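Minutes, project check-in

Agenda point 3 was the complex the collaborators sent over. CS summarized: four entities, 1400 residues total, and the question is how they sit relative to each other. Sequences were read into the notes so everyone works from the same version.
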Amino acid sequence: MLSVTIIGGSGYVGGELTRLVYLHPEVKLKATYSKSQAGKYIHTVHPNLRGILDMTFTDYSPIELATSSDITFFCLPHGQSSKIIPEIAKSNIRIIDLGADFRLKERSAYSKWYGFQHPAPDLLNEFVYGLPELHRKEIATTRKVAVPGCMATSAILSLAPIVREGLDDGRIIVDAKVGSSGSGGKPSLATHFSERYNVVRIYKPTGHRHTAEIIQELSLLQKRNVEVSMSAHSVNMVRGIETTSHVLTPNVPSVKDLWKVYRAFYSGSPFVRIVRDLHGVNKFPDPKFTIGSNFVDVGFDVDQETKRVVAIGALDNLVKGAAGNAVQCMNIMLGMDESEGLKSPPLHPV
Amino acid sequence: MLSVTIIGGSGYVGGELTRLVYLHPEVKLKATYSKSQAGKYIHTVHPNLRGILDMTFTDYSPIELATSSDITFFCLPHGQSSKIIPEIAKSNIRIIDLGADFRLKERSAYSKWYGFQHPAPDLLNEFVYGLPELHRKEIATTRKVAVPGCMATSAILSLAPIVREGLDDGRIIVDAKVGSSGSGGKPSLATHFSERYNVVRIYKPTGHRHTAEIIQELSLLQKRNVEVSMSAHSVNMVRGIETTSHVLTPNVPSVKDLWKVYRAFYSGSPFVRIVRDLHGVNKFPDPKFTIGSNFVDVGFDVDQETKRVVAIGALDNLVKGAAGNAVQCMNIMLGMDESEGLKSPPLHPV
Amino acid sequence: MLSVTIIGGSGYVGGELTRLVYLHPEVKLKATYSKSQAGKYIHTVHPNLRGILDMTFTDYSPIELATSSDITFFCLPHGQSSKIIPEIAKSNIRIIDLGADFRLKERSAYSKWYGFQHPAPDLLNEFVYGLPELHRKEIATTRKVAVPGCMATSAILSLAPIVREGLDDGRIIVDAKVGSSGSGGKPSLATHFSERYNVVRIYKPTGHRHTAEIIQELSLLQKRNVEVSMSAHSVNMVRGIETTSHVLTPNVPSVKDLWKVYRAFYSGSPFVRIVRDLHGVNKFPDPKFTIGSNFVDVGFDVDQETKRVVAIGALDNLVKGAAGNAVQCMNIMLGMDESEGLKSPPLHPV
Amino acid sequence: MLSVTIIGGSGYVGGELTRLVYLHPEVKLKATYSKSQAGKYIHTVHPNLRGILDMTFTDYSPIELATSSDITFFCLPHGQSSKIIPEIAKSNIRIIDLGADFRLKERSAYSKWYGFQHPAPDLLNEFVYGLPELHRKEIATTRKVAVPGCMATSAILSLAPIVREGLDDGRIIVDAKVGSSGSGGKPSLATHFSERYNVVRIYKPTGHRHTAEIIQELSLLQKRNVEVSMSAHSVNMVRGIETTSHVLTPNVPSVKDLWKVYRAFYSGSPFVRIVRDLHGVNKFPDPKFTIGSNFVDVGFDVDQETKRVVAIGALDNLVKGAAGNAVQCMNIMLGMDESEGLKSPPLHPV
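CS then shared the predicted structure for the full assembly.
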């Protein structure tokens, strides 16, 4: 069994990763680091894990923890992993960063979108953007992966086939709806139950930071710049993200042609389901049917009248949007079956 | 006291209208017609009204009921009011139709959007589109009002100032999120609690019928055609609609200029609140803060980077999106204060 | 118009009271005191009131505010109103305290249930327990009212007819389910959306403080001690309380007899609805159908098999459970119609 | 691999069982019978299973399906399995019935609680009540198991240690709160989203059928009759059951003593977690922390003041309350590790 360390284990992503590592047949959790919860049992922070893991959080040196493990996952707030990873990177152990610090290739993108002078710009090109559906081969041969943002994953994977096929005219609008777990576990007025229940709160109409990743990855697919606008909304649920992307296009393809394009693109990708039925209640992707699983559902519709393709993505933000995708990357890095430890179907109803 | 009849009183819109008529100091409910619930007490269908109205639904001739009342409201499924209104219209009583049958001016629009040969096309131009904020004067002098669709109200009112100012380039994308009460009171798999809870279900990515109203009204404001695409999503709540409209524009105005445009446009409109704060959790419109009231909240943001204005609308679909707006129209038709009977503030938290 | 001051206006009860005072035709809000929010506009804290009240919170001397108003409401955390009311009480203005400080008659009850040495025990008997259905006459002639706790109101009113009739054997178990708004507006881990959503959290299996009020009031009805056990649960909603009270009894009455007992007891009480249907989905009280109104719904069932009467109460905790009941008391104190300003029917669906 | 057939695979319990069988390493789904959905792909009814099982429902003879499989699960509405099981029972294959038809030992109990003349009373004693924590040994040696009702499982397992220890005085009141998935997948007014959202609906104040099982099993533990009263409430969630049981007792034990009693009782039961913390938000069982898992959490509190022990149970009604418990029984019948295929931890947050 390979040993895994989690740096930043007390947040929701850290908790989900702990759950998935526990389920994984080939790896074992060696340590979980949390400064704020050090000394507490894991289940006091993640009550679902009561009776499962008899282990406490540690605040022992993250660098030593990392360098003595086979794989280290970082689940830290933006700006923190880039402070410690440079030191760890020297030892050439496998690093999977679930934060934003190494997702973008351009140093200037960090200044622009994060208002952040990147402290380790030389490392940016050593990290692979951890979306197996786009970068499977690079992930297989790297030791450093930056796991995408949850909204970015949904938007990119639902749009990628269209963009690579060149069906768009370069102008894409992403309208995202997210559950509360994406905001993390720290209480605030914004997440106070009485204030958060029943909302449709457009918390970021413009300028959401995940936009940078979407632009980067979609532009790569076409070797030209794609212009992406995004608006993000909080909705009344805990897990799940849905992105509806409106793609303006001079030539609207048929549904049948889009089926072919999507099928071809995702052949060999076990966690992408194409959802585009003709009948029934659930003809298009809905995060409800991905909860607890590593699936991302993608679908589409066409509007011949107004020259628009609608691309829909849905996933569980803590699994395919974070921890599950990270484990999928780990599997690929380790040469294992991509699905290892990730076979639980979604729950329904829930 | 003027007498009011409701034709179609057993649905959610009929129930909300009953509640508002009960609260109104100048009118009195004379009869409420429901074929399916005839003979039953109102509170058996609308349990909130228990102990308030000691009255049963009737299936007595809707034409006689209507023609013997001062005002008649129709809350019927699409295609039904146009069958009986022609007969009633002869008597020149005040008619307020909350259905879709008389919203559109063009007979051909019914064929296109509803697949429906309109049985009374001559009446289409006799009806005023019942949005006081756009047609207050016409409403004051008509006897026939067609109350807008709930999503259309949110989209049109959030967009109207921008469009009349000519800030758009003619291309608008509306992304709507709606609560379950918009689907009515009839059980189905789509509204079964276990299936409907926690969804972000894009039930109409293209071709939603309310689009026709939005196009009609926005085009009127500019005397040119506006192209509108809409995608509609069911989200996890009962009341409320939010529309996020993405407006592409060559020249993005400043926030300050938009404030002026919105303020000027809605001066004298007591139910429109402009919500665009710089700080706090609730900087933009959210249906959560309109529940139970006739307010529509409108707001905006600008994206200089991608040449986009985002216009946000939020309302309670059963009040400003239907029954409250209908009462507001009635007040104007009767020469009363526009706000009469509609002064209850929204509930919070709820 | 009489002038009203609210001391403690920034919490949820204070906000609801502000809403109800705004709607009331005979009184006017003069000032709303909040130490923490002083200087801020009311709508920044209560976003539903945007566009309605153009007024800020003040931290000006609560004693001067109170003594220069006709009626003063206190919506303060436990232990605070008893510090300032002694000073104000001298001036003989009308005081309505929505906190717990003057609900109990016995000084020792505060030591026992609240672990609190009451600083003004002499005033305890000057306050009337503000439940109009039990103490209407005393409220009409007092200047000092202590508004009951929200759970206590539901439990007492659903049980009172049974207990006064002597149908119980002195042993009652109350199982309460409450929405999040009962926990107030201050964020914490317990109310963090991701942690609070979907719970059935028994936060107080034994020893809930409202038990003291229930014992006091039920015992008064029978001039003997009634033993009450209560367990309180948080459930997944914002507004609403339901209490299911299990009453052990040697002689189980018939449903018909209970109907008579309840009808007689609540004759003349406009805000109590007896809900006990034979058919349909909503045969018993459910807070869902009281939201936004001052109704308390009470109902019952009998279990001949196990010698048990089940008494059910349901209400909106912020209205009949707090602010609405306070306004009802004010109306009675002022000699007005008990229902003035409280006529809004509940919302449905919501 | 052993072959499994599910008779009644299109309901929520059938769907959950399909999911668990898919995950199980030692058995394989051979057929899933549904009369109403015959011919349709499984994922059209259980959208979570899209892309996982490429199989259709069949309406081929359930008797032949059953008799040619190693294990057959029945997930049928009350009264149906007892019609076909007598024929199948002859062949001595393993039968696990998730319905109510073989849970009770007394023929007369069916007349009393179900108003049902049992068609196969001779078989009642051949079935073992499938609660491994009480009947592990009998399950290991039988070929016929009747899986308990979901509420019964929570109530019995939270109460069993107390009752076996003789701490009760024979009088127990169970107050249950259940999610919507317990009502199944068939739409009705009671489960219509707008009507079901936000409820605390006491749908069965007295006479709930699961009471019969609770009485049977608790009485067995003490060899004397235990009197149980139950009231059941629908609350605003999809999965989960919580039972709060109020146990009247002359001698209230200490918390420490109860810890010992519970620990001893559940030693060797891998799916029972005892939850009774002194600090924190989640000191007692809450279904929120069991979702997706086979855990049942049990806890307790004591009320010295009113001579009451409160026993709390919480579980996922579709897993430990039905399909998961059925798989656990299967594992025991087959001599496998009791936890096989059931190791997924609960999801959190969700």
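Noted in discussion: The radius of gyration of chain D is 20 Å.
Follow-up: revisit at the next meeting once the mutant set is ready.
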